[in-house]
Amino acid sequence: YTDVTPFLDGIRRDTFKLALGFLTVFAVLFSILFLSVRRADHTIKSQYADINRKNVALEREITVRQQAEAELKHARDDLERRVEERTQKLTREVAERKQAEENARKLSRAVEQSPAMTIITDLSGHIEYVNPRFTHVTGYTLEDVMGKTPRILKSGETPPEVYRELWTTITSGRDWQGKLHNRKKDRTLYWAAVSISPITDKEGTLTHFLGSAEDITERRQADDEARRHRNELAHFGRVSSLGEMATSLAHELNQPLTVISGCAQFCLNRLRTDKGEPKDLLDSLEQAAEQAERANQIVRRVRSFIQKKEPERKEIDVNDTIRAVSNILRSDAREHNSDIELELAGDLPPVTADSIEVQQVVVNLVHNGVEVMVQSVPAPRLLTIRTAARDGTVEIAVHNTGNEIPAEDLDRLFQPFFTTKSTGLGMGLSISRTIVEAHGGRLWATSSRESGTEFHFTLPVADTGRQR
After folding, report:
1. Pick from 367, 400, 369, 380: which is nearest to 338 by CA?
2. What does the pLDDT read at residue 466?
3. 285 and 154 fall within a common domain
C-alpha cells in the first residue's frame, strides 16, 4: 500500500494552479474582451450618435432643401405665371397697338380721301392740318395755311355775329354747325356747310378743334333756283286767284268809289248853287276821305298780295294775317251767295312765315271751298275758318259744307293739274302744299258725307332761340 495522498495533493495543487492560471488567463482575456467590447460599444455608440447627429443634420438639410426647392418651385411657378401674364399682356398690347396703328392708318386714309374738307387747329385757331379736299376746293395748300387761322377764308359776306357765336360755342366745349360764305384762293366765293367739334384728351381737356366742311355752292344755287321757280309759281297763283275774284274785287272797290263820287257830286252841286254850308261840305268831304282811305286799303292789300318779290319770313300773328284778307274773301263769297265765319283762337303763339304766302294759302282754300259749295250745296252757304294751337304748331282749318270727296282723291287733290271742279287748272292746292311745306308745315284734307270737307295746314311756332 502506497500512500497516494501527496500525489493527489500535488495533483490538486497543480490542478488548482492550473485552474487559477486558467482563471487568471480567462479573467485577463475577459477583461481584455470586456474592455474591447466596451470600447467597441462606446465607439459604436459614439459612431451611432454621430450618425444620428448626421442624420438629424441631413434630415434638417433635406427639409431645408425641400423647403428651398418648394420655395424655388413656387418662385419659378410665380415667375412663369408672371411671365405668361406679361407675355399675354404684351401680346394684347402689341395686337392693340397694331390695331390702333391700323385704325390710325384707316382714319388717316379716310381723312385724306374724305369728300369733305377737314381742318385741325390748335386752341388759338392756328391751322395744323388740312386734307387734300380742302386744297381741291379752296386752292390753299397745307403750306399756304399752316400756322394761319381760318380767317384766311373770310369773304366779308358772313355776318360777324355768326363768327362770334361759333367761337363762343366751340370754346365752351360744344359742337357748332352752320353755313359760311367763304372766299377761295382765287377770290371766288363759295358756300360751305360747316361742323366744328372740340377735341379732348383722356382727362377731358380741350386740345384742338376739328372742322369738317362741305362745298354746297351748287346745291344752294339749285335751291335758289327752285325757290325762284316756286316764288314764280306762287305769284302766278296769286294773280290767278285775284283774276278769278275780279268781280268781287270790283264790287268791293266800287262801294267806296260810289260814296266818294256821291260826296263829290253833292259838294259840287252845293258850291254851284251857292247853297253850300261849310259844315255840310265838311261832313261830305270827311265821308269822302274816309271812303278814299277804305279804297286805298283795298288797293294796298291787292297790290301787296300780287306783288312779285322775295318772300320775307318774320314773326307774324296768324289771326291778324287772316283778318287782313277776310274782307276780300267775304266779298267774293257773297258774290256766290255764301258767307265766311271766323273762329280764331285767342293768344295764339307767333309763327315765322311770309304773311303774303300764308294769305295765298288761305285764299286758295277758301276760293276752292266756295266753288265746291256752289256746285253742290243750295244757298245760303257757310264756310268757316278756324285757328288753334296744337303741339308746337298753329293749325288753320278751312271748313266747307260741300259734297264728300272720295277717300282715294283726298291726297290726289294736291297733285299738280288734278281737279274735281269743272273749271280751273288744278294748281291752287298744289301751290298751297308747296308753300306750307317750304315753311316746315303740313297740308291735308278730311272729308265726310255728314260734315263736308275740311282743309288743315300747320305752321311751326316761332323759335327765336334756335341756333343757326
Report:
1. 380
2. 43
3. no
- If one counts every other C-beta atom within 10 angstroms of the C-beta of residue 330, the result is 19
Instruction: Express each pLDDT in 432-442 by its tens digit.
Output: 888 898 889 99
Question: 0.85 cut: is pTM over it?
Answer: no
Q: Are residues 306 and 371 in the same domain?
A: yes
Give me the numbers of helices (H) and strands (E) for the chain, helices first please. Answer: 10, 12
CATH number of residue 273's parent domain: 3.30.565.10
Are the beta carbons of 395 and 456 closer than 8 angstroms? yes
Kindly state the cell numbers that stand for 358: 300764308
Q: What letter would DSSP give residue 417?
A: T
Same domain, 280 and 160: no
Q: pLDDT exceeding 70 applies to what percent of the chain?
A: 81
Q: Is residue 300 located within the same domain as residue 321? A: yes
CB of 342 closer than 8 Å to CB of 323:
yes
- pLDDT tens-digit profile of 93-139? 888 888 877 777 777 776 677 788 999 999 999 999 999 999 999 99
> 85 is in which domain, residue-wise?
48-105
* Pair (290, 348) in one structural domain: yes
